[in-house]
Amino acid sequence: MKHAVKSFFTFTSFVIFLLLFSSCSNENPQKVRIVIWHQKPPGEREVLESAVKKYMELHPEVKVIVLYKETEELRSAYIISAVAGKGPDIVYGPSDQIGPFEILQIIKPLEEIFDSTFIDQFDPRGLLWYKGHLYQIGDQIGNHLFLLYNKKLVPKPPKTMSELIEIGKKLTKDIDGDGKIDQYGLVWNYTEPFFFIPFLTGFGGWVMDSLGNPTLNTEATVKALNFVRELRDKYKIIPRECDYNTADALFKEGRAGMLINGPWSIGGYKKAGIDFGIARIPKVDETGLWPAPMVAIKGYSINVNVDEEKLPYVVDLFKYLVSPEVQLEHTKVLGTIPTHKIALENEIVKNDPLIQASISQMEVGKPMPVVPELRAIWDAMRPYYQAVLGGTMNAEKAAEEMQKLALKKIEEMNE
Questions:
Q1: 146-292+372-413 matches 32-143+296-367 in CATH topology
Q2: 32-143+296-367: what fold?
């Protein structure tokens, strides 16, 4: 009898366990796991993570994992993983990564996924079409350089380079009398080629022709190189050495009247309590041209390895990430220029003088090439540009050597 009772309770316990397990399984079905890789800086990162959290609250069946990677790490890691049939479902980054991704066929053509009604909701400048296919939809337009000015030191921004030099001379000074300069007229990360582009274009130059061939050995390159060096050595309005962090710190500390930087930096200067404005980088007197920084979108692409069963979930999340609501959250916090037409017409954008000034600079910018050859050109420019600044090479020789090295690197890349 005892054995029968024991067997009964054992069987009953087993049945109850199965029922509870079945109940728990029904209440907690296996979630769809979507992975995003991105390279958003801290301010943008926080907005993205907050948006994803809200999305998961509305879609409990989905688990979204957001992973940050530095831009170059993201590019190389994505290529390695996607070529192997793996990688994140969604990848976010600047437009110049699309060229290499397209060559390797590791991102999906988005016009095959989204209908024209959805695509038409975006400003054309926020859509990256390449070789007849749409590979990226941006959540922001721009990623460009402009002039920021400390209103306490520069009440009215300069409109020409000669005005900039005049203002810069008055502001560059040794305030405490220790023989060292404490305040500068202008600061920026002038050793990096990307930050050199506005000066190159201001003198009428550009990095490549329509076929992707480098165009560095030109009179415009020579004049631009000499001009940047003169700002430091002749007019003495910029520091002897100045990388990104140095320029950023000087402006935040109120020890620089003007700074060349981009929209990603706006949030930091607001937090620092700097009363600043934004203006176009001043016109080059000699040419009458507005400096044209490279303009790019930053946005989302879909991994070619996402299967058909998972794709509807990925598409739904994608639409949410580029929605007017999420884009405007970025704009409110960081002053980014949205791509969605509804967001562009919102009062947050229309009534913000900083955003409108950023748009004004963007309007005279030039689209960043998305071809892989651009990477070779950056790598070819850097050593000789820095050699000119270091005084070990003249501008004419530097322009010639940049061109030679760019051609060599492109040839090696295409072997």
A1: yes
A2: D-Maltodextrin-Binding Protein; domain 2 (3.40.190)
Determine the straight-line distance between the first and last CA of the chain, rounded to whole angstroms.
85
pLDDT digits (tens, 9 = 90+) for 65-112: 999 999 889 999 999 999 999 999 999 999 989 999 999 999 999 999
The pair of structure tokens assigned to 182 is 């404490």
- How wide is the angle at C-alpha 295 spanned by C-alphas 346 and 202, nearest 5°? 125
- Which of the four pLDDT bands, split at 50, 70 and 90, describes residue 29? low
C-alpha 59/C-alpha 308 separation (Å) is 19
Question: What would the two tokens of residue 383 be?
Answer: 């050593």
Q: What is the pLDDT of residues 239-258, one digit of tens each?
A: 999 999 999 999 999 999 99
> What's the token pair of residue 228?
């940047």
Q: Could you tell me the residue ranges of all domains in the chain?
A: 32-143+296-367, 146-292+372-413
Average the pLDDT over 43-47 and give the result: 89
Question: Which long-range contacts does 233-237 make (Cβ < 8 Å, 24+ apart)?
Answer: 235/165, 235/168, 235/169, 236/169, 236/172, 237/165, 237/168, 237/169, 237/171, 237/172, 237/184, 237/185, 237/186
Residue 299: beta bridge partners? 93, 138
55-61 LR contacts (CB < 8 Å, sep 24+): 55/317, 55/320, 59/316, 60/31, 61/29, 61/31, 61/32
Structural tokens at position 320: 């949410």
**Fold observed for domain 146-292+372-413:** D-Maltodextrin-Binding Protein; domain 2 (3.40.190)
What's the whole-model pTM score? 0.83
* 3-state class percentages of the chain: helix first, strand second, coil last, to nearest 5: 50, 20, 35
**Cα 256 from Cα 259, distance rounded (Å):** 7
As a whole number of angstroms, the distance between CA 28 and CA 30 comes to 7
